[in-house]
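*Target chain*
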Amino acid sequence: MKKSKRQIEREEQIYQLSTLVAGEFSLQEVLDRLAEAAVKIVGVKACSIRLLDEKAGELEMRSTYGLSEEYRDKGVVSKHDTVIKAAFAGEAIVLDDMRVDGRVKYKDATIKEGLVSQLTVAMQFKGRDMGVLRLYSPRPKHFLDDDINLARAVASQCAVAITNAMLYAKALEGARMAEQMRLAGVIQRRMIPEKAPEMPGLDIAATYIPCFDVGGDFYSFQKLGENSIDVVIADVIGKGIPAAIMMSSFRGAVKAFADAVGDFQNYCENRNKADCAREIINRINRLACEECRDGEFITLFDAAFDIEDMTVTYCNCGHEPAILIRDGEVSDLDKGGLVLGVDPEAEYEVVTLKLKEGDYLLFFTDGLIDAANFDGEFWGKERMLDAVKKFTSGSAERMIKYILGHRRRFVGLARQIDDTSMVVVKVVKR
């Protein structure tokens, strides 16, 4: 049977409608195209598309075609409306004459707009109510079975196209967020020293390996005078953006305080080095207590090297103890106290150690030893210490590569969930 010109046009319009399902369009663009297509396919005066807002319990007018702005803004429609409830129950609701039908809420606006009959069908996707498609005619009793079938087909295509547009919008937002995270990681890594400072009598090396774009690890080097340098390594509890923001804020505060201290020797003139360092830690802790909320805290290891006396004055604030490697023997530098940000009155023990040529000091965050293989087994501190003991000589940089090489052989290509930071300081001849 030969198709009529009208049938051919409808089939072409339905095909064009189907292209919206797979297209990469914004939600509003899809809605506007759908409203126009519905009018042309069914052959009516106007169309409106309302989407369901579950929280508000209302259907929000999102797009119209052939309707005035005044009619579009006439008022809200509740999901408990008689017509809407019936449409969501699967019915196609036909109002033959809106001017006299008791189910019409805005009769005056309807009459002014010149609308007489109405057809309402639900847009549903996988059993989920998404909204309604409404078609309008200036003639009474306009909508017949053929129109209803067409409207249902259009509404079905609408539901799929709208879902695709929403998913596309989420994908774009995800891509934007990923790019923002990447840029945040770039900025954060600028805060990590690109290379360790040079200091007569010390060979210093460091590395930072993030497992995400941003994280909570940081280390810093602050020269406190001609013969002094302060090494800080810290870990903000948590992952991702919150930890990164707190890390950035805390790092800035620590650096500002160190700058204010100036020359370590002058600041501590006529005072015991340990007492001086303790005062600094107390101030940093009080600052952390002001900034941290419940469940937030910071672990930190601070070590001030005095090249003139060849000593290190350190305090471990709940961090992984630094390791002193001397003549093949290892010992933990574990003196200190509570993590920062919990108790403003916490007391900290500060210790000064004499150093000698050939000593290595290893500072690290827990991501180094908490690295796991595909079986979920942690590399652990014992394996790390075994690797350290086998390293007999070489630069600080070589020690870092040696340790990471041993860890890599254990964990393989397994994805890690925590950042890794390491600093190695080797005492050398001046």
User: Anything to note?
Assistant: The mean pLDDT is 82. The chain is about 40% helix and 25% strand. The first helix runs from residue 5 to 22.
